[in-house]
Specification:
Blueprint: H1 9-15, H2 18-28, H3 75-82, H4 100-135, H5 155-169, H6 179-193, H7 196-203, H8 209-226, H9 235-251, H10 263-269, H11 277-288, H12 292-302, H13 307-330, H14 343-364, H15 379-384, H16 391-396, E1 415-425, E2 435-442, E3 448-449, E4 453-454, E5 459-468, E6 475-481, E7 492-499, E8 510-513, E9 526-533, E10 539-548, E11 557-567, E12 570-576, E13 585-588, E14 593-597, H17 599-606, E15 617-623, E16 626-632, H18 635-649, H19 666-680, H20 684-688, H21 696-712, H22 724-737, H23 741-756, H24 764-779, H25 795-817, H26 819-822, H27 831-843, H28 853-879, H29 882-886, H30 888-894, H31 901-935, H32 976-1006, H33 1015-1027, H34 1035-1068, H35 1080-1098, H36 1104-1139, H37 1152-1172, H38 1182-1216, H39 1224-1232, H40 1238-1259, H41 1263-1287, H42 1295-1314, H43 1319-1322, H44 1325-1345, H45 1349-1355, H46 1363-1374, H47 1376-1390, H48 1396-1406
Antiparallel strand pairs: 1-5, 1-9, 2-3, 2-4, 2-6, 6-7, 8-9, 10-11, 10-16, 11-12, 12-13, 14-15, 15-16
Helix pairs in contact: 2-21, 4-11, 4-12, 4-22, 5-6, 6-8, 8-9, 11-21, 12-19, 13-14, 13-18, 21-22, 21-23, 23-24, 23-25, 24-25, 24-27, 25-27, 25-28, 27-32, 28-31, 28-32, 31-32, 31-33, 32-34, 34-35, 34-36, 35-36, 35-37, 36-37, 36-38, 37-38, 38-40, 38-41, 40-42, 41-42, 41-44, 42-44, 44-47, 44-48, ...
């Protein structure tokens, strides 16, 4: 079995340069001949050993080949075609200085030169046959419906393309691209362009820019489809834009592609087009190694530009083939061996039928307009073949129509005449200003007139076009002058001339003497006329001859003769008289033989006593019972007549001019010169060789092999398909020279398999067609199953078919096994599908019985099992870690290398990524394509390069599809292999993973306990497997699950223990510094819980039951851990409260540690939903439980903190309680003014509240909790103040108390308003009660004390009073004078006890300004 990934360089070195590759290719195809058969052409064939390549000298460019495996050609025939062989040459004399080595070298050199010469001669002979096919094809035409092939990418171009993509990725180009396109190109470059399989595909000649473009297009389609929808930008637009950018990168902007191709390159690039004859000649000169000057010699000697000569050669060939068939009928030993004895007669009938078809094809070619509708069609074949002993007449049956004779109406010719009157001279009697003109007419038909001219310058350039059926027409030209008379009716005739042109007369202008009336003075008039008479297509020659016959032309005299071709097989010799369209006499040339004859012999033929007057050069036409003698006065004319009649008769004997004619005549010397030049260069044998004596099957095998080698080396990605021009020439050769279609395709298959086994990409569809053709031929039991209607099957064909079938089966098995490397990235498109379809065809025993499904499935399964091992082994080798994974045990035992387990695990993870990529590519490039093919079955195979369906041959003409692969008319089997391959590809993947599992188990077993570095391996594999519907929960997936389940359980157990220990130790050492949303311990706890849950969730455990178990366990763990965290935090909070129970000064600030504790609880509340609920649903009620505990804890913490803050307000109120009315200490304090004004105390409390609010605002992270806490604190403060005032409802407040409370109430309201406490919370009923009380107390103080210091104190803050209080005091300020008077009276009575302070207070109230409210 051949490894498709082996290096292509071996085969390339074996082939050598391109001009040598043809020879090596043909040599490879010669090892299938039978050893018993001998030929001068394969005397060295024992050097090759079967299909193995032999080691020969690289410069041995010419290697001889076997003409045919079944050659029945004699040695004499071969010697005739190629000259003497080495077998007949004299032995080389012994060297005077004996040296065994040098003598052997010289002998080898001589043998090599002889082989090269024999090969050259055979190629030239083959070129002669090819050039005749090109010159005059009548069976095939160049097909115009073949798939246009893409130009292939070479190694150099691949390097250039890779460099362009590298430049783009480095940002060195001007192509603008977004990140998504950049990533797509990067992936394309890494996965595709850098792949070794792409290099192999380029080396195999199967890679084109179309393939590069399609791979990228398929890649980005998935990427773009996965992108989110963008408003105003469709995904089709994105795809189009990306492909345009890709084309810019692929084609580049340099000048290397803009260089004009050389002539040879341009000629190769034109091979896909419809080629002209000259281009076909050039192509096959290169294919066969024929030099240009050799072609020119052959072209001239073979008269390839003469259609008549080529048609005559074909008629001679067909006549010779009929004679060979007749000989074969008599001597059955000349036939090849057939599978059945009865096929010999069938073979003869097939040969006759094929010759009959060729004659029909030749007859169908039009000679002239209307000849296709003539009644002289295939009947000519029956009369023509009298020389073949009537074999075809027997086949067709005798018919009365065979005696149908031509009539005179069948040989009517149509001539085109052009008459140009140029000038007249000799007009002397006319006045210079007289008007003259000319008229012209043919056979009294329509008259044409020239332009008018003056007599002084009688010049014209007027052309008259005429059409006539007269071979000898009369053209009359008359000269007139205008008649000046008033009553003149006609112009005056000055002269006339009558011309009698023929197709052979001169076309150049000539002067003619005019006939002038006697009464005119100018008797010496001359006129210059150019008269051209065209030769009709069906007129082969014409001229004057002497003739004498028995039934026609019974009198020896000179007549005008025309050789008329009625059809391809019917010619007539006709004699004409002047001005007559029908011949006076005619003779049909069927069955005549023409030859030169001496004058003396001519006289003898006429008889004694008669002397032939007229004619110097004689020739005659003879057939049974009839003889006609012709003679010409001119030697060249005689030779032209003999040549034309020789072509018309189709005789095998070629006339040879007698020695008396070898003078220096121009025509004869030219033809003879061509023959002499050809003879000088050794071309005479090739030119004169009879094609009927050659084994064309073996010659065609050589030709087809060389053509295929040339095709595979041209710039196109042909995959083995011939170009239209090559198909045309090969078809024409097979049809013209009778190469059997089955033999042709068997040789073709052998040549294709030779290339495919050397890793050259061959289209499996092409192989399918040729194989189906051969199978239909070998196994068909009626013409319904035989594509070309040939029912005979030779032993050689059957044996060669079985050999090809076995080779093909081995090749297909190898290709399916190595499908990733034979069809990289699914290219060529549809090739794998075509290969599977071909496999079903090859496994069929015949063309009717379908192959058992188990057999096909078994073979594909076996191949894919092997493919799994091949792919895994190669992938490990590419990753360069196979030694690490497979040889580690042995190396460790020997002590040679010590690979650490971590390195093995890293390598295993890398290998897993490569395995995933490989199977994803298999799915994308192979399985998906086959599933599409299964959904869209096709009735015929498709061309694998472009997917273009090839039309059924029933829609094509068998004539023009002769031996084309498309003409294999068959119905392919049901493509069940597509579905089988897709299913078996899943089994292939399981086997592939089982190989990986061996390495995985080994590496995991070597890992130390309680290490978790292997989890990334599980994630890579599980993410791939769970996304694949075919592999999900498969064997390997189950194994993977069983392998990692204990690790997951162990990991969760250890993580639970670790988290519990971290909580215990963390809170013991916790310093309650704010970190993140809580403290260090809580942050670590919540991160661990979230990371653990995320990790387990990201594992996407395939078993639902185990996944739910893990999920429930992790949620319960989170609930327990959070509960423990809350309890620890609450305990620490209560301890901190107890620490500060004795510190109730206004200097107190809430510690940041307590704020951190609050944050921990708040963060626990936020985290608990995510950690304890499942996808937002509290399935296990863990979140409800923990949420209730958090709410209770927060309420407890809020209550404790507010109690602590309220203790400070309570302490401040206790201080001003000493000034209560009736208190002795209050009177003393007021009198001595020890504590100053009440504002200081109030401001101290206000500062306390502000500091605490700032601390809470800055340290606590939850805004909602802060607002709620502030509302509770504010409410508690207002309630305490209200209660304190309510207790003193019956007493008047001391000014000190009034001042302190007024400042506190005002500032608390404004500060909490700034913190975001809502208006409805601020302006509560308790606050309104306080406000009313304070209004009353202020009024009382103002009336009692008058103007004093307290007024000044209150004045400082009068501008910040609340609106509600200002409205309440408006009524008081309206009666300000009354209040002022009361104040003055009280101040006067009290004397100097209170002094200015009360007076100042009264002044404030009485001055009309607004109160502190």
């Amino acid at each position: 079995m051949i490894d498709p990934s082996s290096s292509e360089e071996d085969s390339e070195e074996e082939h050598g340069p391109q001009h040598q590759s043809h020879h090596s290719g043909t040599h490879h195809g010669t090892h299938h001949h039978h050893p018993a058969e001998s030929s001068p052409y394969h005397h060295h064939s024992h050097h090759s050993d079967g299909g193995s390549s032999n080691l020969e000298v690289p410069n041995n460019a010419v290697i001889s080949r076997s003409l045919s495996p079944s050659s029945a050609v004699s040695i004499e025939t071969l010697n005739h075609s190629v000259g003497s062989s080495r077998a007949n040459s004299l032995p080389r004399p012994t060297s005077p200085s004996p040296s065994v080595a040098s003598e052997k070298t010289e002998v080898d050199l001589q043998e090599k030169q002889e082989r090269e010469e024999e090969e050259r001669k055979r190629r030239i002979q083959l070129y002669v046959f090819i050039s005749r096919c090109i010159a005059y094809p009548f069976n095939a035409k160049q097909p115009t419906d073949m798939t246009r092939r893409q130009t292939k990418i070479t190694k150099h171009q691949l390097e250039t393309i890779s460099a362009r993509f590298q430049s783009f990725l480095k940002g060195e180009t001007q192509i603008m691209a977004d990140e998504a396109f950049q990533n797509a190109v990067q992936s394309y470059y890494d996965v595709f362009l850098k792949s070794e399989r792409v290099i192999k595909m380029v080396q195999s000649g199967a890679c084109s820019q179309y393939d590069f473009r399609e791979v990228f297009k398929n890649n980005i389609e998935k990427r773009v489809r996965s992108l989110p929808e963008m408003e105003g930008l469709s995904k089709e637009t994105v795809l189009t834009s990306w492909m345009a950018k890709f084309d810019c990168i692929l084609k580049g902007l340099g000048d290397e592609d803009s260089k004009r191709p050389s002539r040879m390159q341009q000629q190769s690039l034109n091979s896909e087009l419809i080629l002209s004859k000259e281009q076909l000649y050039d192509m096959f000169q290169q294919i066969l190694g024929v030099k240009k000057f050799e072609h020119q010699l052959l072209f001239n000697a073979l008269m390839l530009d003469s259609a008549d000569e080529q048609a005559a050669a074909i008629r001679r060939e067909l006549d010779g083939r009929m004679q060979r068939v007749a000989e074969m009928e008599k001597n059955r030993k000349l036939m090849p061996k057939f599978v059945l004895k009865e096929m010999e007669s069938l073979y003869v009938e097939e040969l006759k039928s094929s010759i009959n078809l060729l004659m029909a094809n030749l007859e169908s070619l039009p000679v002239s307009k209307g000849s296709m509708d003539s009644k002289y069609g295939l009947q000519k074949l029956k009369r023509y073949n009298h020389r073949s002993q009537g074999s075809l007449a027997k086949l067709e049956g005798d018919s009365a129509d065979s005696d149908t004779q031509l009539t005179k109406l069948d040989v009517v010719l149509t001539f085109q005449l052009e008459v140009v009157v140029m000038e007249v001279k000799g007009l002397k009697s006319l006045a210079p200003n007289r008007i003259v003109y000319c008229t012209m007419e043919v056979e009294n038909g329509e008259k044409l007139q020239t332009d008018q001219a003056e007599a002084s310058k009688p010049m014209w350039d007027t052309q008259g076009d005429f059409c006539t059926t007269h071979p000898l027409p009369a053209v009359k030209v008359k000269l007139y002058t205008e008649n000046p008379g008033m009553l003149a009716l006609e112009d005056k005739e000055l002269g006339k001339v009558v011309l009698k042109p023929t197709p052979l007369s001169s076309k150049a202008p000539e002067w003619h003497k005019m006939t002038v009336p006697k009464n005119l003075p100018d008797q010496d008039l001359k006129i210059k006329i150019a008269c051209r008479m065209d030769k009709p297509l069906n007129m082969k020659h014409c001229g004057y001859l002497y003739a004498l016959g028995k039934s026609v032309w019974k009198k020896w005299k000179k007549r005008y003769y025309v050789l008329v071709q009625v059809s391809q097989y019917t010619f007539a010799m006709c004699s004409y008289k002047e001005k007559k369209s029908e011949p006076s006499e005619m003779m049909q040339l069927d069955g005549y033989t023409v030859d030169y004859i001496e004058a003396s012999s001519a006289n003898l033929m006429v008889g004694m006593g008669k002397h032939l007057e007229g004619g110097r050069y004689f020739f005659n036409a003879v057939r049974e019972g009839d003889s006609i003698l012709f003679a010409s006065d001119d030697e060249a004319e005689c030779h032209l007549w003999v040549t034309a009649m020789y072509r018309a008769t189709g005789q095998s004997h070629k006339p040879t001019p007698p020695l008396t004619l070898q003078d220096k005549n121009s025509t004869i010397s030219k033809i003879q010169g061509d023959a002499d030049r050809a003879r000088k260069h050794g071309m005479e044998d090739f030119i004169s060789a009879d094609p009927c004596t050659f084994d064309h099957a073996s010659l065609f095998k050589i030709l087809q092999n060389l053509t295929l080698e040339y095709r595979l080396n041209d710039p196109y990605c042909s995959l083995g398909w011939f170009s239209p021009g090559q198909v045309f020439v090969l078809d024409e050769y097979c049809a013209r020279y009778g190469v059997r279609g089955c033999y042709r395709h068997l040789c073709y298959l052998s040549d294709l398999l030779d290339r495919a086994e050397k890793n050259v990409m061959i289209d499996p569809t092409l192989i399918h067609y040729s194989f189906a053709f051969c199978a239909s031929h070998v196994h068909g039991n009626s013409n319904d199953f035989r594509p070309d209607g040939v029912g005979s099957v030779t032993h050689e064909e059957k044996e060669k078919f079985q050999e090809v079938k076995e080779r093909l089966r081995i090749l297909l098995e190898n290709q399916i096994t190595n499908f990733r490397y034979c069809f990289p990235f699914g290219r060529p498109e549809g090739s794998l599908k075509a290969t599977l379809s071909l496999l079903e065809r090859v496994l069929m025993k015949d063309i009717v019985t379908p192959v058992p499904p188990e057999e096909v499935r078994g073979m594909i399964k076996k191949s894919l099992e092997t493919a799994a091992l091949v792919n895994y082994t190669r992938l490990s080798s590419e990753a360069k870690i196979e030694g690490t994974l497979s040889s580690s045990y042995e190396d460790d035992l020997r002590g040679e290398t010590m690979v650490p387990p971590s390195k093995k695990l890293d390598d295993l993870i890398h290998l897993a990524e490569l395995c995933v990529d490989l199977l994803q590519q298999n799915e994308e490039h192979y399985a998906e394509q086959l599933r599409k093919a299964e959904r869209q079955p096709s009735a015929q195979p498709t061309s694998s390069n472009t997917g273009t369906p090839v039309r059924d041959a029933k829609q094509q003409s068998s004539v023009y599809r002769y031996c084309m692969p498309q003409h294999a008319t068959y119905t392919p089997p049901d493509p069940t292999a597509f579905a089988w391959f897709s299913d078996l590809l899943v089994e292939h993947a399981e086997i592939f993973w089982s190989l990986f599992a061996v390495d995985m188990d080994r590496v995991l077993a070597e890992q130390p306990p309680d290490t978790w570095d292997s989890f990334p391996l599980f994630q890579i594999l599980n993410d791939y497997l769970r996304a694949d519907d075919n592999l999900k929960n498969g064997r390997f997936h189950q194994h993977l699950r069983d392998t990692f389940a204990p690790l997951v359980v162990r990991y969760v157990d250890l993580m639970e223990s670790s988290i519990a220990q971290s909580i215990h130790k963390g809170f013991e050492k916790e310093r309650w510094e704010i970190k993140g949303n809580g403290c260090a311990t809580s942050e670590d706890l919540f991160w661990k819980l979230d990371a653990l849950q995320s990790f387990i969730r990201d594992l996407h455990w395939p078993d639902a039951e185990f996944r739910q178990h893990l999920e429930q366990r992790l949620k319960l763990m989170a609930c327990d851990m959070i509960e423990s965290c809350i309890q620890r935090t609450e305990s620490a909070f209560q301890q901190w409260l107890k620490k500060t129970v004795t510190f109730i000064s206004t200097d107190y600030i809430i510690p940041s540690e307590m704020c951190a504790m609050v944050n921990v609880i708040l963060d626990a509340k936020n985290q608990s939903f995510k950690l304890c609920a499942v996808d937002g649903i509290d399935v296990h009620q863990y979140h409800t439980k923990i949420d209730d505990q958090i709410d209770k804890t927060l309420a407890s913490m809020n209550q404790g903190l507010i109690s602590k803050l309220m203790s400070v307000l309570e302490a401040s109120l206790s201080k001003i309680s000493r000034y209560d009315e009736g208190s002795l200490i209050g009177s003393i304090l007021s009198f001595t003014n020890v504590h100053g004004s009440g504002k200081d105390l109030g401001q101290g409390y206000v500062n306390f509240t502000r500091n605490c609010m700032d601390q809470i605002r800055g340290k606590v992270t939850d805004e909602l909790w802060i607002l709620n806490f502030f509302e509770q604190w504010y409410t508690a403060q207002i309630n305490m103040l209200c209660n304190w005032l309510s207790e003193r409802l019956d007493h008047t407040l001391h000014p000190y108390q009034c001042t302190c409370l007024a400042h506190i109430i005002k500032k608390v309201y404004s500060d909490f308003e700034l913190q975001g406490v809502m208006e409805d919370k601020l302006n509560s009923k308790a606050y309104q009660t306080i406000s009313q009380r304070m209004q009353t107390e202020e009024a009382t103080c103002s009336l009692t004390l008058g103007q004093g210091e307290s007024g000044e104190v209150l004045d400082d803050d009068s501008d910040t009073r609340s609106k509600s209080k200002a409205n309440l005091m408006e009524t008081l300020s309206e009666d300000g004078n009354y209040v002022a008077n009361i104040g003055n009276m009280v101040a006067g009575r009290m004397g100097n006890i209170f002094g200015k302070g009360i007076g100042g207070l009264s002044t404030k109230f009485g001055g009309g300004t607004s109160s502190w409210f």
